[in-house]
Amino acid sequence: MPITLLWAVDVYGRVYSLSTAGQRWERADDLLLELKRVSAGKGRCWGIGCDHRVYLNMMPSETPIRYREETYENQRWNPVDSFTDTLLPTDRWPWSDVTGMNPQPLHSFELPSHSWEWEGDWYVDQSCGGEPSQTGGWEYAVDFPANFSPDKKWNSCVRRRRWIRYRRYIAQGTWARIPLDSPRKPPLPLCDISCGGWEMSDQSGRYPYLWGVSQQGQVWFREGIHPRVPEGTTWEEVEVPKEVAQLSAGPGDLLWVLLWDGNLMVRTGLSLDSPTGTSWVEVESPVKEVEALHVSVGVSVVWVVTKDYKVWFRRGVNSHNPCGSGWISIGGEMMMVDVGLNDQVWAVGEDRGLYFRMGVTPSEPSGNGWIPVSAQKECELSGQMNEASVLSCTDSDSELGPPEAKNSANDTPVLEAAAPSVVPLGGGDSPTPPLKTEDASSASQQDAPKPFIPASDSFINSLVSDRDRTSTTQPSITEAPQEEGEELSPAPILPTPVAEGHDVPWMNVDLEGAEAARSAQAAGLSLGDGSTAATYSLETSQGVGEEDGPVWTWISGGGCDVDASSQISWLSPLTSSLSLTPVQSAAWSEQQQQQQQESNVRLSVWVRKGALRWWRDWKPQRWVDVGVALEQSTKSDGRKDSIFFVYYTQYDEKKYLHVFINEVTALVPVLRDGHYAFAVYTAQRIKQRWPLVLAAQTERDMNEWLSLLSDCCCECRGITGPPSRHALWSTTSKGDVMVHEPSFSLEATAHTLACDLMFWRQVPGHLRCVESNSLGLVWGIGWDGTAWVYSGRYGPQPTSGKHTDVRSVHVYENQRWNPMTGYTDKGLPTDRPMWSDESGLKECTKGNTHPPSPQWSWVSEWAVDYNVPGGTDKEGWQYAADFPVTFHGHKTMKDFVRRRRWTRKCKISLRGPWQPVPPIPLTDISLMPCLAQSRMEQVPVWALSDKGDVLCRLGVSPQNPAGSSWLHVGTDQPFKSISIGGANQVWAIAKDGAVFYRGSVSPQNPAGECWYHIPSPPRQTLRQLSVGRTSVFAVDDNSNLWYRQGLTPSYPQGSAWELISNNVTKVTVGPLDQVWTIADGVPGFPTETPGAVCHRLGVGPMQPKGQSWDYGIGGGWEHISVRGNSAEAPRPPHPGAAGTPRSPLPARPPTQVNGNAVGV
Fold first, then answer.
1. Which domains does the chain have, with CATH numbers?
2. Other CB atoms within 10 A of residue 552 CB
3. Which residues contact 149 (CB under 8 A, 6 or more apart)?
4. Where is the composition biased (Polar residues) (predicted)?
5. What's the Cα-to-Cα distance from 198 to each of 226, 319, 564, rounded to whole Å?
6. What digits encode the pLDDT tens for the residues 786-822?
């Protein structure tokens, strides 16, 4: 790691630097230099002097800084004198720049400042266009301006040659004052500067920019800073709507300013093409009642100190979002902070000590604690000492005193200057080593002149105000041999109190108050008369209190290359306290005690960044490479808040999207062009049917982001562990299993939770449908018919086994008949593609058709599928009169088109909390719903096999969720849907659409006695039904929802069917008779993918059919089950209307009487 420097300024204006390879602060060579503030960058450090001038310190390097000055000598040919510098009035100047617009004679060039020197005299550039020339450097042309060449032609009437002179920067390693602008008026006096911009996101390693603030509140930008011109050239004023007190520029394109009213402003539009930005955006202070005191920015972080010395971190800051999104309170009381390289944070504490923020990493930019900068001060004390006195300059001696002082009070003490920033308490109680002096009155401390130490209630005012400090020398102190029996008088200066075995009490006080306390205590000390002493001359260049370390007022880490993993000796929290000032030691101990007391809550910000692809859903729709960041903050009460950012660029303008994690309602993997994609839903995006779709490069990346986002969502909502017994289960058309934790408000008659606010989380697995009940039993069926039982809720640890599923992928081969060749793949121009999907809108061939996602793999070859609705001929063809109409399995004279379906199986393997229930493949399953307080030893489970057989599972219980065996229930035809409701009501639908009710089902007779035929609605064929506690709902082939009227305990078959709504593909009825469906589409969004979760509102004992629909998340949802949600909310006596139905209701249909029983 290269050696870099940390810069700091004390309250006296002295500038110190600390090397990452050293252990001591080194003061600037120029002892007369006094700076107010410094701002460091890579290889340089800027400062503002007490004279309000700007200073620059360039780090020494092996490569010298040289600048080439050049000017052109221009001549014109005339018949008398040939080429001469006598030009036409319309020509350029005889000596000019390359454009000829500006005169540049040789004598007009001067050194910009005393930091430069000429390397030599002017000389002619003998090369033309980079190649040596024999013409003395002359270039010829027909006229000005034109293209010059070294070849002289007969029509060459003008010529020019370039003169060059180099100047070299000689002030590297020293503080050099940059020159004033001439003839422009300089922006002085300046009160703050900030260096940044050397890591612009568009181009890394660019030279830095310099910003300044004048005392009038104006913002200035230093132009012309270049590797060959480190000082820059001129100042340019940047318009600002309010007066600015302080500013901070980051290494990238961030610039924040602090206003005099305590608010903040952000400069937007900073780029390489526009280094001064375009506009200002105001940001409020972190606390409205407390104004901001200081601001500092990094690459993507912003830190602020308020006037109560509290530290704040701005979350969500990025090049695309320079204003950020919110404030986070950080522990510690600081007077100023500075963000250096790698976004590391340095600070000046309220005790005037220097601190470093531990644990700052790209993933945790707020760090996790403050540690003091424990470097020692460079020893500058000089004087004359004799053999009887030893003068110590080290920090350890100045803090604790010499070892001899601990053992004997009569030994000669070590003399040390008093520290104005540290005042010992209880000085009268501490033993004071006595001294005898020859003249007590002349040596009295109260007669000595006291230097003025600046102190102010306002931190900014104290930094920018001038001070008048008179350098003084310490008075001489004399000492004589003691006479026998003579008592020792107290010393005229305050020694450091030392008490072995006891901690020295220290406190933070104002500097002026410290000096006053010191003078008052010194005035109360008296010296003995008649004593003689040997004289010691104590001459020092140090000011008051320097031996305890400088009292810091400013720090800049912009040039200090450290990070959280750096091994720096003076940044170790285990560093001995002897290297700290007493105030720092006390503050450090207090901080450690506070952290131990509050170890259970730690304020922090955690960030995870990455690169994904985003499906831009406005025209032109396409995949866009974006940067993403998940930012999580921990509040003071332990709560965590997260924001997900998506950064993109549109027309060279940086923009961003953000999603609050507590607003996310679902994270769903989706199928998009073979990408590893997932969709992020919020309530607003559900209403707009506009999810945020992102894709990762690999399956691992997608799973990591899904897991990370899902964990943050659950953490924000306090959801932990496996799904509860009352959870709602659902599956998507892709096979993903989703679950929602219900609340009482979900089924409340008043203030019902909106469907689009429901939070769905994914459970590992791949299933076609899932059913549950309130006892915690969950069964599912895969696409290959395998039955699975959920095992994540049982045992001490959730079990996770291998979960597989197989599904088929279909493509259709289409042909049209013509009289010459019969059926061929030559269709009409208006026909569908000859190889397509089922709809015929998308071309799908066997070659370009892939598994649903990269997680799937082929397990078979393409084959003709003969099991197609409508039947096929012996070759698998289906016939129709034209595309698209209903196809049938036999050819007629009017059939001019035909198609056949090709199928290929693919398999997915993953791990999930599911156990298979072999060996019979199933198509439907139903668990008996029950109320929350119900207890059952055996839970009735009914299912249908892939052949349509009715099965009853025996031995199912919460302790044995998989049961023991299947019991076959006889039927005279295959069934396609079955459901068991409250009181062992079993309803089923045969494959021909006939409805049956199973009678006499009870715990003693789980299979029942016989089937009762229930007439179907007129001219409708039912395909799926669901039975609740007291109600039955069914869906027909035309997506109509029907309700069975007249159900009573004495007549459980009901009396008639009533049409409720259309646009329904599946229905589920819960133990509270709540009704949920999968809607075929959402009104107003015709392009939405079929399959949306829908809730029937207004369902109650007096209104079992409900009143209206509430549409929730949608776009590819296959199944939903609410049969486990038995958490009943308190119901008002007379529920009101829930609003106007969102689905059109047809006229009331005719009713039908119930049919007769059919014995089996």
1. 5-63+172-375 (2.130.10.30), 66-169 (no CATH), 603-720 (2.30.29.30), 807-910 (no CATH)
2. 25
3. 128, 139, 140, 141
4. 1151-1160
5. 11, 14, 22
6. 999 998 765 444 556 788 899 999 999 999 999 888 9
Reduced to 3 states, what is the DSSP secondary structure of residue 589?
A: helix
Query: How is the beta sheet containing 1022-1027 ordered, strand by strand?
Result: 1022-1027, 1032-1036, 1041-1045, 1056-1061
List the beta bridge partners of residue 694.
614, 678
Residues sharing a CB contact under 8 Å with residue 1112, sequence separation 6 or more, in sequence order: 686, 754, 755, 756, 758, 1092, 1093, 1094, 1095
- 84 contacts 58 by C-beta, under 8 angstroms: no
Cα separation, 246 vs 259, whole angstroms: 7
pLDDT digits (tens, 9 = 90+) for 413-453: 333 333 333 333 333 333 434 433 344 344 344 444 444 34
Q: What is the pTM of this model?
A: 0.71
Q: How would you classify the pairing of strands 975-980 and 376-377? A: unpaired
Rounded Cα distance between 631 and 316, Å, is: 7
> Are 1077 and 1069 contacting, i.e. CB atoms less than 8 angstroms apart?
no
Report how many helices (DSSP H) and strands (DSSP E) the chain contains, helices first: 8, 74
- Cα-based torsion angle of the residue sequence 120, 126, 127, 131 in order, rounded to the nearest 10 degrees: -120
- Spatial distance between the Cα atoms of 116 and 938, rounded to a whole number of angstroms: 96
Sign of CA dihedral 272, 274, 279, 282: positive
SS3 517: helix
Q: Would you say the C-alpha torsion 483, 484, 487, 488 has a positive or negative sign?
A: positive
Sign of the C-alpha dihedral computed for residues 107, 108, 113 and 118 taken in this order: negative
Which pLDDT tens digit goes with each residue over 521-554? Answer: 444 433 334 433 333 333 334 443 444 556 899 9
Alpha-carbon dihedral of residues 905, 906, 908, 909, nearest 10 degrees? 80
Tokens 């791990």 sit at which residue? 911
Quick one: DSSP state of residue 1103? B
Question: By three-state DSSP, how is residue 744 classified?
Answer: helix
Alpha carbon separation from 408 to 389, 432, 465, 931 (Å, rounded): 15, 11, 47, 86
Neighbour tally for 938: CB within 10 Å: 15
Distance CA(978)–CA(951), nearest Å, equals 10
SS3 836: strand
